Structure formats: C-alpha cells, structure tokens
Amino acid sequence: MSEERSGWSGHLAWMGVGVLGAFALATVALARGEAVSALWMVVAAICVYLIGYRYYSLFIAKRVLGLDARRLTPAYKYNDGLDFVPTHKSVLFGHHFAAIAGAGPLVGPVLAAQMGYLPGLLWILAGVVFAGAVQDFIVLFISTRRDGRSLGDLIKQEMGPVPGVIALFGAFMIMIIILAVLALIVVKALTDSPWGTFTVAATIPVALFMGIYLRFLRPGRIGEVSVIGFVLLMLAIVGGQWVHESPTWSPLFSLDGKTLTWLLIGYGFVAASIPVWLLLAPRDYLSTFLKIGTIIALAIGILIVSPTLKMPALTQFAQGGGPVWAGSLFPFLFITIACGAVSGFHSLISSGTTPKMLENETHARFIGYGGMLAESFVAVMALVAASCIDPGVYFAMNSPAALVGANADAVAQTLSSWGFVITPEMLTQTASDVGEKTILARAGGAPTLAVGMAYILHQVVGGKALMAFWYHFAILFEALFILTAVDAGTRAGRFMLQDLLGAFVPALKRTESLPANVLATGLCVATWGYFLYQGVIDPLGGINTLWPLFGISNQMLAAVALMLGTVVLFKMKKDRYAWVTILPSIWLLACTLTAGYLKMFSADPKVGFLAHADKFSQALADGKLLAPAKTPLAMERIVFNDRLDAALCGLFIFVVVSVLLYSVKSVLAARAASQPTAREAAFELAPAGAQGA
Amino acid sequence: MGTPGRKLSEDVGRAGQYLVQSLRLMVGVPDYGAYLRHMAATHPDQAPMSYEDFFRNRLDARYGGKGRIGRCC
Q: Which of residues 220-239 of A touch B (CB under 8 A)?
C-alpha cells in the first residue's frame, strides 16, 4: 500500500486534512444563529473518517492485530465457489456495506436531532472511529482467523459455552425488539396516509410478480427483473397520488395505527411462511438496490443543494426533557444513536458471510473498519436531512400529541412558546406539499427523514411539483427494507426458537414439519407483534419506549463483541494494546448499564418504567383513569407492559454483566498463561497469487 | 501492456465488472464464473450446477438458512 511508504511529505498532506477537518468542525460547532451550510458537516465527517482510517485503523491492523498478508484465509482454505469464495475487496466491500446499512443509521440520528445537531454529530464521529469501526474490524479479524465462525461460536470457543448461550439468547431478544420497533416506524409513517399505504401495499403484488418471473419465466435474471420491479414501484408511487386524490379510494387506504398493526402482524406471519422465492427474495433485491441508489442520490443531493442547517447546534433539550424521547444527554444520546456510531448487530454480520469471502486477511481493515465508516456517513446524512428542515416542523412531526396538542393550531402555539416559531399555516402547508393530510405526531424518524430528503432532492430534480413524489419515494424506500427485515427476521427468529424449544420438545426442532413451523412462526410474530401493539397505543408515541430498549440492547451486544475482542487480544498476548477494545467496552458498559438502570428505576415516570407503572397503579387504586386509558382494564395493561419492559431491561443487564464476568475470568486466565492461548486455526501459507494484499 | 487508451478502457471494463459482481453479491449471488472455474480446477470429475440450479442453491442458502442473520436493521 502506498500509504505505508509515504514519508514526511505524506504526513504533511494528512496534516492539511486534519486542519481542514478541525476548521469544518469548528464552523458547525461554534455556529450561533448565523446560517451554516450542511456541507461543513459533511467535510468535517469525511476528514475525521480519512484520518481515523489512515492512522488509527492502520495502527490496529499492524500493531494490535498484526494482520498477515501471507496467511491463508478461509475463502481459499474451504473454497467451494458458493459460501467460501475469495472475493475482490471492492466487491466484498459493497456486499458488506449492503448487509450492515439499514434503517438504524437513518432513524437514530433523526431522533437525536432534538438536542440539536452537534451532540449527535460528535457522538457519531467519535463513536465510529473509536468503537463502532473497531468492533466491526476486530470481529471480522477474529472470525477470519477461526474459519469464518459466527459470533455465538466465537464466544463459546474463547470464553466457554455458558456465555455463548447467554449471548445468543440476548441476540434473539434484540431481534424481537428490532422487529417491533421497525414495524412501529412503518405504522407511524403510514397512519392515515392513503398515498403511503397504497404505495407500500403495492410492493407486495410487485414482488410476487417478480418472484414468479424469476422462478418460471426467466430463472435467475436478477438485473432484468429488478429493473422491471423498479419501474413498477415508480408507477405505484404515481398511483398512490391518484389514490390520495380520489374520493372513493382514499378512505379505503386511510388506516389507523391499530388496523395497520394487525395488517402488519398478519403480513409478517404469511410472508414468513410462504416460500422465499415468492416474496422475500424479490423484495430483497428491490430494497437492497433501492437502498444503495437512494444513499448515493442523497449524497449527491446534499453536495449539489448544500442545504443550510436550520436546527440549532444545541437546543434547550440537550439538558434533557425533550419531547421526542425522554432523558438526559448522558446516557440516552449514546443509546439513541446506535447504528452509525457503534452497532452490536454488526458483530453478527462481521462473523457471518463476509469472513468467508475475504481474499486476504489485510483486507479486513478496508472492509471492516472502512465499511463501518461508510455506514457512519449514512448516519451523518440522516442528521443533515433532519437538521435542514425547519425545527418547528421537526418538533411537530416528532412530538407526541399528548405533549404538544393534536391539531395544527395547538401544536404551533406550543412549539412557538418553546422558541421554535412556527405558524399553523406552515404546518398544513408542509403537509400538503408532501401530499399528506397531516404531518403531526409522526415520530419514528422515517417521515422526518422523508421530509428532509424531499426538501433536498426536489431542489435537484423536479422542483416543488415533485416534492410529494420524493417524500413518498423516501417513505417507500424505508418501508421496503423494513418489511424485508421484518420478514427475514421473523424467519431467522423462527429457526432460533425451534432450536431453543427443540431442547425440550424434540418434535419442534424439525424445520420441515408444518405444524412445528407454524407454531414457531406464530410465536415469533406474536412476540414482536405484542411489543408493536404496545408501542402503537402508547400515548407518548411508542418510539419513546421501544427505541431506548432497542438502543440499550444493541449497544450491549456491541459491548459483548468488544469484550470478546479484549479476551482475544489478551489471549494473543497483546496486553499492551488491549486498551483499543477495553476503552470502548467501558464506555458502552457505562452508557448501557446507566441507561438500563434509569429505564428501570428512575423516579421520573417519563424515563423509568417502574415509576410509570406506579403512577398508573396508584391512580387505579384511587379509582382514577389516566389518559390514554379509558377503562380500568387498559390501565392494568399499561402497568403490566411497564413492568414487562422493566423486566426486559433487567434481562439485558443480566446478559451483559454475565458476559463481563466471564470476560474478566478469561482475561485473568490468559494473563496467567505463559504462552498465547488464542484458539486460531493453524497458520497456513496463502497461495502466491493471494498474498498481494 | 498496450496503449494508454486501451488500458483505460480495460480498467473501466473491469470496474464495471466489479460493480455488477458486487451488486449481485449484495443479494447473495456470488460470481457464477468463479464457481465454474473452481469446479473445473478442483472437481473436474463432477458436473457443475447449471446457472439456474446455482441461483436456486444460493437463494435457499441466503433466505432458508438456519437462523442466520444476514443483514442489519
């Protein structure tokens, strides 16, 4: 690589990058009232990524891990042309990026923007360089040196069977929460939106058609069928406008949250039960390609339009007490933005298909560390999109009606009293610009991002006339890959559950048995459906409850992965470099354990689940009803749900603390040993052609 | 090596190839040519799968897997 050879002149050029980055960061950080272009945010981010990649990831690659270009990778060792295939590093980068980038980096930063753009930006940049990218890189490295094994196997192998099972169980619970929160985002985006609902519903027949085309008419022609599918999707967006304007069809697709919830639950059950080629695979093609295309389009859009940041660098809610989600900056900002800064889920991907295709061990730096930097950039773009719309519109969309009022007049009045001056006309105008009846109380990130994207993209293509088109394009793009995730996640959860239940009832383990399948799928759908329904009827918007649970669990998984990295570093006798994983582990443990504790025991009923439960059970005892409950039964349900959520927090804390104890034990054992004890696959020399790094 | 113009068009061609390969790999379909080369080199006695069978095999591996999580949120 040329960068190793560069001498002082090279370092001087990098110093220039550093100065530019520092200047850009200072420009966005010190802005007080004057108009600042979002490009400064982009420049600051790119400079930080470049320097982090050039220096820190190189340090990790050479000193900490000691990547060895001569070492045979699993892709060569087990080459079968199918799962294990040596793959060019740019090709594999695309694959890895598409697997890690999803709805997460788009939603978290939007929610975090309630504190102003600065806290979120700083956390995204610091988090990715020192925690997120490190985690992805190290897990990829560990798995590559162990024949491409999965995270659960790696933990089992390096720490013992008990922490392995605990971590896998934790991963299953995280998945349930993720599915619920993703489905909730779709519900929030489609409630009373005939245009959006029609467009998203139309993706089902489009995908079915594609599936049949790909199976029987032109087998395996992915490119061709994806183009056809894309054209049909665009027609669905146009058709959605027609539905939106039609007095007969519009009411048919105007659904409330509860109806949408039941439809989604039913959809999830059916979609996870029918053959994969019919619905899941074709929609996955559409959602993957649309995701990549939209991310590139958004990047180009931001460069061309160079929107002005309208959100202040810091709002008064940086102190806590914000309407979008409750709680103070520490620890809650750091669990609200998970994906984009550090995401534990990536450890499952980095120990999934990617290590089986790594051509050379040294590529782990570009793919693991670099791939995460690319995802982080998606998060920065989401933050730009959320910060370039009017703050009044932002808070109107993301605040629950229980806090700011249910109609444009009330909302405008409340928000203006907070200092985000907005008129009711502006709110109704924005709604009509994007082809919706209302934009109020659409928490969840997706609709806000869609407004931001429409705001940017309509200035590039189409002008005002296409703003509504772009809004629904953005909604469609998010809903599409969320539905794919719901479908694929339900399937993955079903297999996990069958494995788990099979330990007690062997008959349930048979994945080809129809009753066993239906039962496991039903249980899986019922579990995430339960949390989804609870979120939909939550007066504070549901996101307020579910997103922290998701953030806590996801960051805890990241802590688990980084603790695995620490154990492996000690076992490799790299004690002096173990701070590379120890510091981010400590930070994540501090954030997640504090957040978990506060979500359980905080005296503020907006933050603490148990305090909220007490408030409702006290009222129940006094014979009073608190909104939104209209019956004592509903009150009891709220109390029960609060206690369930608190128990879930406790469970996550148990998982992470027990893995911590096992890690400490393994580290002590490794330090006591006089030899390296890491259980790597034996060193074999790579073929000469594969050593080119 | 050839003329610079030819080199450039070769580079562009290769970049295009990588792009297509990457897009296909994103949805779980690795390079069929690489599979054929692998089969010819290491299992010349076995008949390789046709592209259609190869495609089905990869589809089942990606989506029918045993509880594997192939993507992030």
A: 220, 222-223
